[in-house]
Design goal:
Blueprint lengths: L3 E5 L7 H17 L4 E5 L10 H9 L9 E6 L3 H11 L7 H4 L5 E6 L1
Helix pairs in contact: 1-2
């Protein structure tokens, strides 16, 4: 079984509410299914200051409900700083390095 799952929160151009519901469902399902990491594709927005789904994702991931599920998280633009720790926990993330590194439209989650 794959250790990494990609989740495209932008797929189908959902509202923020629908994207956050999808986020909650995907994180809890991935944890129950034994995944080690999730790559969340939330986009960055066309304004250049970050999109509404990215902002909502950041806020949602800080909720108490995720404390027992998420070990750590990193935005694509900070990937190079935390890459070693993340790959140590889930070596398969190395396969996604080029896609994650510097990408403001991605957040990577390590699951407990």
């Amino acid at each position: 079984m794959a250790k990494v799952k990609e989740v495209n929160l932008e797929q189908g151009l959902p509202t923020v509410e629908v994207a956050m519901s999808r986020l909650t469902n995907e994180v809890t399902t991935a944890k129950m299914s034994g995944y080690k990491a999730l790559i969340l594709i939330h986009g960055f927005g066309s304004s250049g200051t970050g999109g509404s789904i990215k902002a909502a994702t950041k806020t949602k991931l800080q909720q108490t409900m995720f404390r027992g599920i998420i070990k750590d998280k990193v935005n694509g633009e900070e990937w190079d700083v935390k890459k070693r720790a993340f790959v140590s926990h889930c070596p398969q993330l190395n396969d996604f390095d080029r896609r994650i590194s510097g990408n403001k439209g991605i957040t990577v989650l390590l699951l407990k």
